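Appendix B, record 7
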Amino acid sequence: MANLAEQAAESIGADALLTRVGALFHDVGKAMNPTFFIENQAQGSINTHDDMEPVESSTAITQHVLDGIKLARKHRLPRRIDDFILEHHGSMLTRYQYSKAVEAAGDDESKVDPERFRYPGPRPRSRETALLMLADGTEARVRAGRPQNEEELVKIVHAAIEHVQSSGQLDNTQLTLSDLNKVTESFVTTLRGSYHPRIEYPKTKNIAAVQNVPTTPRGENKS
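Structure tokens (predicted):
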């Protein structure tokens, strides 16, 4: 993910080194309660969140931002890194927990206060922290979606960036539409190398003949 953000920063002339370092430290708060996060749960183990109410589960997730700041201050990380820790989720909702709460309320959104499911923020205030937010969300979607070809990969990247943009998270970042186009291209290029989506080849009935490869029945020797 650090590579994803760094390469995107280079593509638009942002501070690539700062972006990479911020990406390396942005989730440090998860170290305080690692089992609350699925990437740290052993396959087949019980998910801690299954026994929690949606609000409680959301609070446990968003707490990693505040815990990250505590650790950053304790270990005297540069204050500029604080921005990456605080802003990489901005003021987004924990969508899974919010959806579960709405479901429990009989699908009546008026009965659920979205503010109880929101990250503390603030929204990104620089191009570098915005790139981290975009890279974080995009990488998670691609990992979950497992695109099988480049077309699917491009759709996922576009959807991830559009979600962040439409949520108003980029309003204070000075990112232009031209920048976002370059970021999209950069993400696709980097993710193509990381996830290797399969290329769909045209079907050919007699592939051996086309490739001019001699075929030999099993069990027989070539003569």
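Remarks on this record: DSSP finds nine helices and no strands in the chain. Residues 19 and 128 are 5 Å apart (CA to CA).
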